[in-house]
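Hi P.,

Sorry for the delay on this. The queue was packed all week, but I finally got your sequence through. Input first:
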Amino acid sequence: MEYKKDIKEWTLEFAILMIKFSEELKKNKIDFDVISQVRRSGTSVGANVREAKASSSRRELVRFYDIALRSANETGFWMEVIHKGYDFSSKTQEKVKTELE
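Then the structure:
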C-alpha cells in the first residue's frame, strides 16, 4: 500500500492539529484535565513515530510504532469523551476524527 504523505510529516501535522484543537477546547471551557489528556495523547503519536524512525533495531521500531498506535487509540477515547460528555462538536474535531481513522 502506498501512502500519499510521509508518516513523519503526517503525524507532525496531526500534532499541530491537536494543539489547535486544544486551544479551541480552552475557549469553550472544557476541563483542563481533559484538554491535557487529549493533547498529550494526540501529540504523542508523532513523537513515537519519530522515535521509531530513529530506532536502532527492528524490535525497537515495532515497539515505538505500537506505542504510537496506542496513543492514537487513547486520543480517540478522549475525543469521544469530549463529544459525548460535553456535547461538543466542531469542524476541527471532525478533522481530528478523520485523521484518526
